[in-house]
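Exam revision sheet. Question 4 asks you to relate a sequence to its structure. Input first:
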Amino acid sequence: MRTPHDVVIIGSGFGGIGMAIRLRQAGIRDVVILEKADDLGGTWRDNTYPGAACDVPSHLYSFSFEPKTDWTRRFSPQREILDYLRACARKYEVLPLIRFGAEVTEARFDEDAGLWRLTTTGGELAARVVVSACGQLNRPVPPSLPGRGTFTGTSFHTARWDHGAELDGRRVAVIGTGASAIQIVPEIAGRASRLTVFQRSAPYVIDKPDREYRAWEKALLGAVPGLHALARARIYALYESRALGFIKYPRLMDLMARRFRDHLGEQVTDPALRQTLVPGYPMGCKRILISGDYYAALGRPGVELVTDPIERVTPAGLRTRDGREHRADVIVYATGFAASGFLAPMKVVGRGGRDLNEEWRDGARAHLGITVSGFPNLFLLYGPYTNLGHNSIIYMLESQIRYVLGCVRAMRAHGLEWLDVRPDVQDAFTREMRTRMRSTVWEAGCASWYQNAAGTVVNNWPGFTFAYRRATRRPDPRHFVARRSRGPRALAVR
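Answer key, structure tokens:
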């Protein structure tokens, strides 16, 4: 096998690109990014469905070290975000580091050598440090409906959008009413001859205060020193204030619930339809959605909202439990992702032959959502307990990237072969998270993608993002066991 690389990053979304940039800036040049697809971008590469856009304001959903003052809209569309990420990769010379078409199938820690042995679809390689930047929303999950393979029309998941599918004048069925569905439905409601939306549980949807930025606004942000940073800080503070309702005082969600009721009342005049769109769980327990036109689209002629459970897929469409057959030419599965698997489906084997899937059989665990005991020199970005309901995940990723970089620097400075977080430290963090989670709105009695198969919330951070940044400011050497390098320093700066 070839000489091991200093750092191998898995995934080329915001986490992977940001990690690579920071490593290179720290003088660590031997960095490889493994990407299973043929382009970078992660979720913004995969989700190209009509209407795809961010629900966090543009100036906050971007790297702090690479401000962009000329976003076209307050909430950026998918293509603009992907172009921004590509521009970052070019500017910071990250593109040459990416090996496309290289999906990692197994990562195995060689304890004797102090190395990770990686098996990919493009060959094998070794690394001293592995950073997983796979994200939480990268594996689409179609529904497990009987007869799904019998449908004679066109069907696909939103994250694998079939741009060759004909929608104009066709009968289209959309299964699901989550974040992607509320963006898709308004886009195709005027194109399909009939649009049927299947709702299992109603989401909370509040108005989206989106608009185009005026030319003078973009010019001003780019010309006045400090103005963009001030605008970004203002948005951050506004969004961060909402954390109180999510994590500490769920009654504060009543203020957002009022926005929901006002928006629903303005957009939906039919009392019967309006009633079916009122969720039966506390606001914030599931992801709160934003849209200025979803509810209006449901009231258009030729659009029907169906709440009866789907019994099976038929060759001609979908049959609901009431026996009704809903004919369709195209079925769109807006059914989300396998969010709590994190590193799945790759096989990860750590010290003593321990299998990560087995270690996580009762739920994913990682100290600060980043390091896993028994798996030295393996770091997770966007791991368990790091998702948000109120602010920008890019802020959280930058906190994690700084922490990982701190670990790598410590290894280099002290000639360490590997670092492994202590099991008692990891267990203490997990207990703290589960205790704090009990007071959050996410455990207020609903089923959501924030939970694992056992119903435990493992995705979200039950606190303020600035508290997470403080907790990840620098790695605490007392939290780790380590082995010194028996040869040259494990990580060299070139």
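Marking note for examiners. Residues 57 and 304 are 31 Å apart (CA to CA).
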